[in-house]
Structure formats: structure tokens, C-alpha cells
Specification:
alpha/beta; globular; 5 helices; two-stranded antiparallel ribbon; five-stranded parallel sheet; 18% strand
Length: 137
């Protein structure tokens, strides 16, 4: 175990969905979390809390981490248009053995990147969102 988790954030990500997860891993398993984003700039959560990423998607190296976590997102409009996020996630197509966890609306980003084709998954998307985004299967 490498003792590192990567948390991909995007504007309006849900911090409350991942805070207990990060707490559990840090204090029970001595596993730290690195925040990843497309740029090293503050990203504001849906709760209004700004976080500063430690690494960009371009600097990410999967060999340094045990897994990647995608939190949910209350307003996906900005993140879904971010081509760097999509490109970053598409890079995992060839890494099928690397664990990725996605919470709430997080699977939408995996679907956009083509990572959920032929896989069973759950999400919390409204029917209207499924109709709007053809990549959600």
C-alpha cells in the first residue's frame, strides 16, 4: 500500500461527501489525501470552502497512489465542460486495474470519459440529466 489517495476536485464538488472518507483513511490507516485539479488554483466546494490542490492532472502519476476518488458535484455545468478533466480521466482507459471511486454525480465524469461502458454502476443523477447527456448509459 502506497498510503496515498488522490481526490479529484472541480468547482462545486461536494466536500462533505469525502471528508469522512479522508478522515477515516488518515487516522485509521495513516493514508494521506492529495487534492488534484487541472490547475494549481483554489477550487471552491459546494459548501463554499476553498481548497488548494497539491498537484495538477498533468502531474498525477497513478503509481504514487492507491486510488482516485471523485466526489459528487452540486452544479456540474462548469466541470463537465472542462476538457482537461475529461482528458485526465480518459487516461485511465489503459489502467483498468487502478481503483477509482465515484460518489453521487461523480460517475457522470467517468461516463463522459468512456470509463463506464459495459460496467454496472450507480449514481444519483436525475432522469433529466440522463436525457441531456447522451454519454450516460
Amino acid at each position: 500500500m502506497k498510503k496515498r489517495i488522490a481526490l479529484l476536485v472541480y468547482p462545486d464538488f461536494s466536500l462533505q461527501e469525502v471528508s469522512n472518507l479522508m478522515y477515516l483513511f488518515r487516522w485509521n490507516y495513516e493514508t494521506m489525501t492529495d487534492v488534484i485539479y487541472t490547475d494549481i488554483e483554489p477550487v471552491t466546494s459546494e459548501e463554499g470552502i476553498s481548497v488548494l490542490p497539491q498537484k495538477t492532472c498533468d502531474e498525477f502519476c497513478s503509481e504514487d497512489y492507491d486510488c482516485l476518488i471523485l466526489p459528487g458535484c452540486s452544479d456540474t455545468r462548469q466541470a463537465i465542460r472542462n476538457k482537461k478533466i475529461t482528458s485526465f480521466l480518459q487516461s485511465f482507459r489503459e489502467k483498468s486495474d487502478f481503483p477509482i471511486g465515484a460518489i453521487c454525480a461523480g460517475p457522470m465524469f467517468l461516463a463522459q470519459a468512456g470509463l463506464l461502458k459495459g460496467r454496472k454502476y450507480t449514481d444519483s443523477l436525475y432522469v433529466e440529466m440522463r436525457e441531456l447527456f447522451s454519454f450516460i448509459v
